[in-house]
Amino acid sequence: MVMLLTPAQRNNLLAGEQLPRLPLPPAIISNGEYTPPRQSRKLQMYQQLMLERASFQAPRHGVDVHNWCRTPMAMAGAFDIMNRLFSQHFNVSETEAFDPEEAHTRRDRLSRQFVFDDQVHFLRDDADPGYFEPLTGLIELSAELLGLPHAGRFGIEQIQFAHFLKFIYLDSDTKVALLSGAPSEGMAMLTNDQMAAARSAVNFIAGDTRLLTHAVMGPGHDGWLDEIDRVHAELQPDGWKGYTVGEPFSPSDKRYRLDDEELMYPAYDRILKAGVRNICIHKGLLPENADEIMPGAEAFARVDDVGKAARDWPGLNFIIYHAAYRTIPQPTEAELHRFETTGRIDWVSDLAEIPARYGVSNIYADIGASFAFTVLTHPRLAAAMIGMLIKGLGRDHVLWGTDSVWYGSPQWQIEAFRRLIMPADLIERFGYPDLGHDDSPLRRAILGENGARLYAVDPADYVAAGVAGTQLDRIVARYRAEGGLPDNSMHGYAAK
Questions:
Q1: Which entry of 44, 60, 319, 430 is 20 to 30 Å from 204 by CA?
Q2: Fold of 116-139+159-457
Q3: Distances (CA, A) of 141 to 138, 150, 155, 210
Q4: Mean pLDDT, residues 435-457
Q5: Where in the chain is the domain with CATH 3.20.20.140?
Q6: Residue 109 buriedness (CB in 10 A; 0-12 / 13-18 / 19+)
Q7: What is the C-alpha to C-alpha distance for residues 61 and 68, in angstroms, rounded to an integer?
Q8: Looking at residue 143, what is its pLDDT?
Q9: ∠305-307-308 over CA atoms, to 5°?
């Protein structure tokens, strides 16, 4: 595996595990696909204020700082601090951040909300740490620096199957998740067969359907159409995943366009005939130095190939991952200025305009990763992205995804979306919708119901069951009753 981070860049990085374990991450974390930015001034202030609050509150509640930061009250406190730094962008009551009973009551009330995460990951258990250095290199180093036992294995385990189960199903309100992968010129993070095996294992443990899976397509690779037929016959995938930029961790000669009739249309025909309708495509999320490390990738990361493909194949759903947000990990000053003056967000605006331009209704946007880093650094922009997608694609065409476990448990992202406020001036200027209360029909649709409809899952089967229902419900209830809480760990790279 080729690492996109150079040795010089890596010397200026530290592992996510070395950051303070706060309810909201105090910095942007990279999984190796891009160079993480320096901690912003506001996130520095958040970190300082959160640690000060924790050092004051923890003794009052008879716990240490680390364990206090894992509580619902601490999560509310984190958003209270964010409101001080970013103005009022998050819904937090006047007392929730200081009243543990109120915070727990809210947490329990929302715990049965149906959450369908359409983009989760983990690393195969037989992974070679050296080969997957973009995901593991600094994590292992941090384990050694922190004096943790078995340092060489500690880091890898944090992003492998056992911790995946804990982060997704025990430490968050996620009810159903869609396991995804990525193409690779060598060893894949997960093969199509491994993803299918994980689906069987999770659903056996849970006692019902809690994990769905992609299969990853490899246009241009030898025998790739035969692999599509094999996967349909043997593995019955719930959808397909593609990267038009090729392998995400290195330069690739297997890039393609969705509207390439000669290359892609035979695959669409096979997929549709097999009864699979959902094709998920990684778009956007180019690193700032893409021209240097991925020359030529930008032409394939854009969404100008989506409209024609969607129009030509109305029986397929084209689900554009990351909402095609152009620059990862955060917008440049020029991009922020352009948004404030024109209302446009690079490539997200282009995606939102496709249905009107092409007369199609089979294009969807997943907000995984894009929402995570914008809500931490520019919550106003995160709200605008959501509003733009709702207005252009429709409120039933915006999907929830988190890209976990690369960034730890997805619960903080779920909380951020439940609390995010649509600024009044964006509502007036652009006609974006008010997001409503934390369990509003619009939030429920994006957090779970839209994805459930695409993948033929009935939310009522999970919401109605409750803590006395399925086997997994009982496991989660016991875990939390015995004090189980997220550990707020982050896995990846941060800037020193």
A1: 319
A2: TIM Barrel (3.20.20)
A3: 5, 11, 8, 34
A4: 98
A5: 116-139+159-457
A6: exposed
A7: 8
A8: 44
A9: 80
